[in-house]
Amino acid sequence: MNIGIDMMGGDFAPLEAVKGLHLYLENNVHAPAAFFCIGQEDKVLPLLQEYGLDKHPAIRFIPAPEVIGYHEHPTKALKEKQQSSIAIGFHLLATGKTDAFISAGNTGAMLVGTLYSIKALPGIQRPTIATLVPKLDGSNGILLDVGLNTDCKPENLNQFAVLGSLYASNILGVSNPAVALLNVGEEEGKGNLLAQAAYPLLKENADINFTGNVEGRDVFTGKADVIVCDGFTGNVILKMAESIYDIARQRNLHNDDYLHRFHYENYGGTPVLGVAKPVIIGHGISNGKAFQNMLKLAIKMIESDLCGQIKEKYKD
Amino acid sequence: MNIGIDMMGGDFAPLEAVKGLHLYLENNVHAPAAFFCIGQEDKVLPLLQEYGLDKHPAIRFIPAPEVIGYHEHPTKALKEKQQSSIAIGFHLLATGKTDAFISAGNTGAMLVGTLYSIKALPGIQRPTIATLVPKLDGSNGILLDVGLNTDCKPENLNQFAVLGSLYASNILGVSNPAVALLNVGEEEGKGNLLAQAAYPLLKENADINFTGNVEGRDVFTGKADVIVCDGFTGNVILKMAESIYDIARQRNLHNDDYLHRFHYENYGGTPVLGVAKPVIIGHGISNGKAFQNMLKLAIKMIESDLCGQIKEKYKD
What we know:
eleven-stranded mixed β-sheet; Phosphate acyltransferase (chains A, B); 2 domains; globular; Isopropylmalate Dehydrogenase; homodimer; alpha/beta
């Protein structure tokens, strides 16, 4: 398998991407994948050399003279900078030269690139992005959507539930994952119009193990393996969860085993679900460990053929 | 001033309400208020005696033979149990015998009672409930709506901003409070349809100091004194914030000065804003300290004439 990596994405590019590759290859001597490192030659090659990766059999350098900055308009930048690492990354993925694409660069450009060049799978109304939530019992849950779909219809939430279930069973290794609807109360009938209408769809969905509503207090307690919500609420939760680690650090509590798990580097990246191939979008501040975790996630997504399984589920 | 207290509300009723009164009167020898203690004679009087409050000049016992339980249907229970502590509490408030009403009982019954017997002030589209959010700088912000209005219109959010501002300046003592819209990004134009439509209303509202959008990560950092959002998102945040204290306790980190501030007892109760008189709804697990804080809040709301100020603002 071949994994494309945008070496120019992230606040510390390309250094942290190189560090991530180095970490990964140090821990996995027989790497199951080849890594296509896409970026500016004068910036990336010296670092690959410095880390002894320039002649590594698993590494292949792909020159990309342009870079899409953080504040550029996604659609405009992708159109005008066809020689950028993100545009080339999507070209390689769309043409089958790579099997997954990873970037910690401009999130908007990554989403636009995913939706326009990789595209939603047939039957998928709305691709979605998800985040892991650290549960007190030591395992992880998944929350979706976390921002791609700020306004949702009930059937979108119902589909997120299936995508999240497949992710939880294939990537997190949870068998028969418990799926819950985020809501303001536990009883059926509670909620805003969206949640009230989504509940019966989820209840009747034979493809998932729906366990009912969960409230804000249950997000971290482990009541559910998959929690579905609209992307507005999910994005607020995602960012609140990230701030928990920042608060812990400020209060000097970040070495607590549980609070430490809120550190973004442990998740590495946000997978886009419901599209034809694995795309993982990293945090702008991604460090080497985060990149390593994105590489691991990409490999897991390819090995489990998560996209193929989603495709199979919606083929009719 | 006279404050009505539902002695029968809360998981530990009437003991914790009595403890709260005892705490308050111990710390405020010259209480500025008289307390109307509403509840079942055989349960409340012996406890008032035990705590030496039965002959206290600030205490007046009001018998209420019935109790509305936690799981009773609010409207039905209020209608059928007119001799309940909640029904009598609202009767006293509506007829001017008391100036505020406090209960840690059935939240639904408290809300129904507030809306039907105290009523929204003229010009108020939707009364709202708010919660305090502990900010890292030591001060508190206010977040609203936290669950009374799970589906909102842009103009509702605009009005919550005014109610929240008046609360922050009158009750929290913040001058010219910074008001923010909870959103998925900082730039104008971000958000779901509701947030996109609310932004320009807030921007043009001369009654508030609108400072733009804040994201989930900013809720606790102190970027804003007043954060407005729909009641679905706000309720999820409220309950997540409550769970932060529970997590801290489980991890034995609850003695941290900041994390300790997430303990519900420090806030005591949720004020209903936009109605004609102060109503404060307490957490079901309210302890003595929580009741004491509800009493303090009721007195502050009466002394500052917050309801009168809101009425004045919307009189045209």
